[in-house]
Amino acid sequence: MSDNGSRKREPIWSDTEDMILGDIILKHISTGSTQLKGFTEASDRLVSRTSGACSFRWNSFLRKKLKNEIIEARKKKNSSKSRGHKIGNPQFYTASGIQNTSELSTVYHLEQVLSPEKVKTVIDYVQDLSSIHSLFRDLHASLEEKDLEISCLKEENQELLLRNKILEEDWQEFSTLAERFKQRGNGQFTSSTKNAIM
User: Fold this and answer.
1) How does pLDDT run across 151-184, given as a tens digit for each residue?
2) Residue 50 has pLDDT above 50, yes or no
3) What is the DSSP string of 30-52?
4) Would you put residue 97 in left (φ > 0), alpha (ψ -120 to 50) or beta?
5) How far is CA 19 from CA 29, 51, 70, 76, 153, in A?
6) pLDDT at residue 20 in the model
7) Which residues form a coiled coil (predicted)?
8) Which fold has domain 12-85?
């Protein structure tokens, strides 16, 4: 992104850049990732574009243009989720943290020395710990996502401020030229009027 203090226009988006940005965001949608991560990846691929610029381009132009593709990407995401969902064996709680061989061996060992009720209590406790750990991990990921979103919005805001500044300068130039033209026209009219009278 160009420095806010300098009046440098961002080059117009090319068809190739639009295609790269669109492909990346659609990929993130279809895999269940976030658009923010897509904007970050796109800014890495498109060296002259910030994640804020990618976000602005996507939301202001490409999202409408690729409406059907977005619907298809979301369908892929939903179908992948349904295929990837596994129902664990409730006897061993494999769907809730008791997943690898060593953990199952521990369960078998506990069954030898404890009553089934006690084993279930221990497994429920481990399951709760696993759920809490998963919750903290999700919260951490959510906070990182929000930080990235704030950063992206700040960049997008800077892009908009720069565009606004350029428009204001263009308007000032236009107003100055219009005023000069008006004055020049009035001067010519005055001279021609005097000549006609004389």
Assistant:
1) 888 888 888 898 898 899 999 999 998 888 888 8
2) yes
3) HTT--HHHHHHHHHHHSTT--HH
4) left
5) 15, 16, 14, 20, 22
6) 95
7) 143-170
8) Arc Repressor Mutant, subunit A (1.10.10)
Q: CA 76, CA 124: separation in Å to the nearest integer?
A: 34
| Distance (Å, whole) CA 15 – CA 75 | 26
Which residue is listed with tokens 């026209």? 185
Whether the model clears a pTM of 0.85, i.e. scores above it, the answer is no
CA distance 103 to 105: 5
User: Does residue 51 contact residue 42 with C-beta atoms inside 8 Å?
Assistant: yes
Q: What single-letter amino acid sits at 78?
A: N
**The one-letter amino acid at 39:** F
Q: Check if the beta carbon of residue 44 is closer than 8 Å to that of residue 61.
A: no
108 half-sphere exposure, CB direction, 13 A CA radius: 6
Amino acid at site 71: I
pLDDT at residue 93 tops 60: no
Position of tokens 């990182």?
A: 144
CA 160 – CA 55 distance, rounded (Å) = 12
Amino acid at 34: T
